[in-house]
Amino acid sequence: MAESGSAAAFAELGSAVRAALSERGFSTPTEPQRRAIPPLVAGDHGLIVAPTGTGKTETAMLPVFDALAGADRFGIGALYVTPLRALNRDMRDRLAWWGETLDLDVDVRHGDTTDYQRQKQAENPPDVLVTTPETLQAMLTGSKLRVALEDVDHVVVDEVHELAASKRGAQLTLGLERLREVSGPFQRIGLSATVGDPHEVGKFLTGDRGCTVVEVDVGSELDITVREPRVTDDDERLASELMTDADVASHVRVIAEVVEAHESTLVFVNTRQTAEALGSRFKELGTDIEVHHGSLSKEARIEVEDQFKTGDLSGLLCTSSMELGIDVGSIDHVVQYRSPRQVSRLLQRVGRAGHSRDEISSGTVITTRPDDTFEALAIARQAEVGDVEPANIHHGSLDTVANQIAGLVMDFGEISAMEAYDIVTRAYPFRDLDAEQFKSVVRELAENRVVWLEEGEDRIEKRRGTWQYFYHNLSMIPDEATFEVKDMASGNQVGTLDERFVVNFAQPGEIFIQRGEMWRITEVDEEEEEVLVTPVEDPAGEVPSWIGQEIPVPHEVAQEVGEVREVGAEQLAGAVGTDAVARDLTRRYPADEYTIGEALDQLARHDAPIPSGDRILVESHGREVVLNAHFGHTINETLGRVLSALLGQRTGSSVGMEIDPYRIELEVPGGVTVNDVLATLRETEPEHVAGIVELSLKNADALKFKLAQVAAKFGALKSYQRGSSGGFGKRRLLEALEDTPIYDEALRELLHEELAVEGASDVLAAIQAGEIEIATVAERTPVGLGGRSSGQELLAPENADASVIQTVKERIQNDRVLLFCLHCQDWETKRQVSRVSDQPKCPQCGSTRIAALNPWADEVVSAVKQSEKDDEEEKQTQRAYKAANLVQSHGKQAVIALAARGVGPHNAARIISKLREDENEFYRDILAQERQYARTQSFWD
Q1: What span, in angstroms and rounded, lies between the C-alpha atoms of 808 and 920?
Q2: 436 lies in the same domain as 414
């Protein structure tokens, strides 16, 4: 029966393709080929979801080659769209043999294609063109290429899941509708290894014109093991060699052992920071494992790719840079260091192994602490049964509409607004776009001189600025500056850093790791977009002080972690030993008893109600209130913002916040109790969440940064006006754009990517309906203390940061402070911290009541002197008196603490009050507070 089904699939193809199949040695179709080739030959739109290595490319292209072979055409018959240029090159090489055999010309076109090749393609178009979404945008505007595109009958979109969740994909759907205006209807075929909601992605691909979905079970092709390394005596010795602790040494050792046991292993990590930190350890060990990520130069990436492909490297330590099938040869195993955070990422990453030998894909997840282990277990189980997260499609992104209105004007010279609206709303992500929203976007473009709109007319016309705008904005990837990192001594480029990180964190003196080596920042040149660095010889330097945007853990994963905790705790409470509970859980989850037992140990020590999917545990200690809430990243972020905003509004003071998928950690001002937090949860109307969140975002740097990016996509902000010091200030930008589609889009994108208003509203409603229980405890618990902060510095050796502390000390001593006498209010001076006496005293009245303020805080001095004060002036005056009280009690030590970044009187008092053995501990606490401020500054006024 299977044989005849197989024969039937290939029998659908013409004689030329069947002959090529025989020559190539394809005797039996793979499952996706058997199921998908017949409907594709019949001309159906199709989405093929199948593991890497199961012949998805041939599944799509054999029917396309069959339709093209022997046909008479001038132009391009098929487009093959991939999200990466590197995949372009791989795909051309893979398709070249078929082209030669079937007498079809296959070529590639992307941003690096030479002018000569472009001209040649326009005058003598290939039959199949491999390209990127951005290059398709440019091709649609070229007069000769538009003629070549008239013959397009097939478009294949590779890695469609990657595009479906991004604005690049939303832009592509509109580009395909513009292509349809040129070529008429064409067949659309999407390919992916992982899709959580294939029918939704099918609509995304086709504009909801019907789509045959062929989905092959991915989970059954996986062999995943979750493992927490056991620390050995050898790890204690290795720890001293690597200047780290024994736990980290065990992780490094186990990864090295797994790599050594296989021929070629990809080691995936979640952040560039972790890649660099682990890479430096492997370098110390002398292993043949190199680092690969997007911040390295193109030459550095290609070099390690080639070394891995030829077998000179046995392991490649990489981030998502290796997820999308770049050809690095045969891979027989994948290691994932720490939880992959999402089911789709685990499937995508582990799916890269084993297929060249028709083997099941094998992978090992190395975990580091209980959160990590429980999360990895939940993700591995969901992966095996195929529970993949849905694609997070960008519906109605207005800057994409702006971009494509300009594209349509470039295509036609002029177009009626209603015709443009009809074309835009044919694309699935824009089917519900309101006509008024569309008009507001057109008017904004006209005001920004991107297009011409005659007052009272329906026609949108091209103007002088249209061409420049469109080609500057071919990509929907945010136009964020990339700073080159250069070695001061040699002038060589080390790598790159994103603008967001440089603006927020890269200060002279900071130490970070890149390409496995440590560097100290000596200068940041914003005009030249360069960060100049010098190498750090001391191997005790630390990982970068900034933390990349975390991969958000979905609600479903967090809920299962809560379920595992609850089940484990119930069994432990029944006087069942940890070993027996661990043994029981190994029947459901792919881990050994030791790994699960180590995670269960946290529950065995937890003497309080266990937080779970339907129980929040609120714990409090001093000014810390922690909600143990298993709702995932985006819901917890949203709930945290609501609580911070409402509690802060009630007290007039700021509320500090950190979240992870299982906790919302608040630092509340004096006078706020845990009962206030509970009342806020129980009394806040769920339908008010959206408005509260929007108000809280107005103080957040995230919104202002996003506004600048979106404004650039609307042509409202020239690139030279962006940056941290140019043109528009952030506050002015917010005020100028608040009632525009630019503001609407910036807010929509933040809510889409980082927050979950609907989910948070549902949680509040469930709390108020009694469906989610709230338990309280007046202490910190093992589960509550096991959050992100317990593991974020895992790769940094404890207290092995002497050079960093010395840098912080030198920076603060060289900083200037404003000293102001609050007794006579007649004396003030600005001087370096190093020149401040041990007990500052007013030279005029002799008082020691001296406020130490920022050197630019003249308005505070002015506020103190005012006899009648408004609320803001009163707040500044109180702050000055608190600072003066500290200086009076603690002298220069208080001046030093108050001179640190983001350390006000309250936090300075906390730092000073701690008992310490040496001065370095004092500066270490200041550094920790500065980093806390850097992470949470969007929640502070």
Answers
A1: 10
A2: yes
